[in-house]
Design a protein that fits this description.
The protein is an alpha/beta fold and about 325 residues long. The protein has two domains: about 1-115 and about 220-305, D-Maltodextrin-Binding Protein, domain 2, CATH 3.40.190; about 120-210, 3-Layer(aba) Sandwich (D-Maltodextrin-Binding Protein, domain 2), CATH 3.40.190. It has helices at about 1-30, 45-55, 55-60, 70-80, 90-100, 150-160, 180-185, 195-200, 215-220, 230-235, 240-260, 260-265, 295-305; strands at about 35-40, 60-70, 85-90, 105-115, 120-125, 140-145, 170, 190, 205-210, 225-230, 285-290. It has a six-stranded mixed β-sheet with strand order 2-1-3-10-4-11, sandwiched between helices.
Length: about 325
Amino acid sequence: MRRGRKALGVALVVCILAGATGLFAQERAGQRAKVTIGYSRLRISLPIFVAAQKGYFGRQGLDVDLQPFDTAVPLMDALVAGHIQVGGFTAFPITFNAMLRSRTALLFVGLLVEDEAHPISVLLRRKDAGIATVADLKGKRVGILPTIAYRAWLEEILRRHGIAAREVTIIPVQPLMTSSALGSGQIDAAFTNDPASTAALQTGVAELVTSDALVPKYLWSPFPFGAFNVRKDFADANPALVRRIVDALNDGIADINANPTASKEHMKEYLPTEQRQFVRFYPNALYVPSHQVDEQALHKVARSYLEMRIIEKPVLLDGLVYR
């Protein structure tokens, strides 16, 4: 078994170095450098969509193949397995757990953050559920995005309102089932994000319990939600190429932050067809470019997730913010 793992590791390094050699040859020949970038078909990946649509990748001399993944979990699985070398954006609970499981070092490039003006996670109610405030969730059935993080965040929000987790029935609900679960009365409320939240609101199935951005309100603000990632071994072998990818993403982030409403239109062609009609109703997003990412902010998130049991052991992040 040990020999098999060693052979697999050697094969992966050879593959990366061979790819690097090919990229260097393309640059010497004056060709555009070809690179595959993975993305999740969710609004979290907006900087990638803007960089592609506005030509920022092309300006950096990149010929980009965008590889879609339905959600961030298979995207991150492909990244730590070495099937792709760069991709995002991915929520930190998914990223940290994948790094711990695979022992893969990933660089962090840019952040999606949540604050009061840029909500990501929202609390919805069924119209006839008798829920006016968070305190009214006691004794109710609350659907959550089926992740460890959403359960932990909801339990903390409940605790801050004097409600024990056992006093609420928490039910994992897949995003596509959120509206039907609310409409049928299977759940009384939902703590989730897009695309489920905006779809439920715009179809009239649900209402906001509160307009507050609850995670940053009860944890801290701005709250780092996720990042774009690059395999460190790939970045070490291809510093010039990664620099160009990062520059293009930073241009996309600058565009989004300057034109948040207009930028949302650039995600339409990358999302599933049924989600496109709601794009203009998505909350505006706020991103932090790579050169403004504070490593201590990542350490703070990791410590918080360890305390909340979102991750089971410390994750090593020293030196992994891309510079």
